[in-house]
Amino acid sequence: MLVLSRKVCEKIKLGDSITLTIVKVSGDRVRVGIEAPADVKVLREELERYPEEPHTLPHPSKLLIESDLRALPLAS
Length: 76
Known about the structure:
The protein has helices at 45-49, 60-71; strands at 11-14, 18-26, 29-35. The protein has a three-stranded antiparallel beta sheet, with no helix packed on it. By secondary structure, the protein is α+β, with helices and mostly antiparallel strands.
């Protein structure tokens, strides 16, 4: 694995047709812009793990709340 350090607005080229741009760094989060041809699949890893699921995953706290609600009796 090649590990590179980049600053905001700096770019990394992958081959001739893919460019990664560091858009923003805030704390431990990095925003990366990706320029790639339309025929190149660009997908976050967690979405690739669940290909049958919708493209948005519920927030873990929402799952916790929904599971707790099923366990609680309904108020009358």
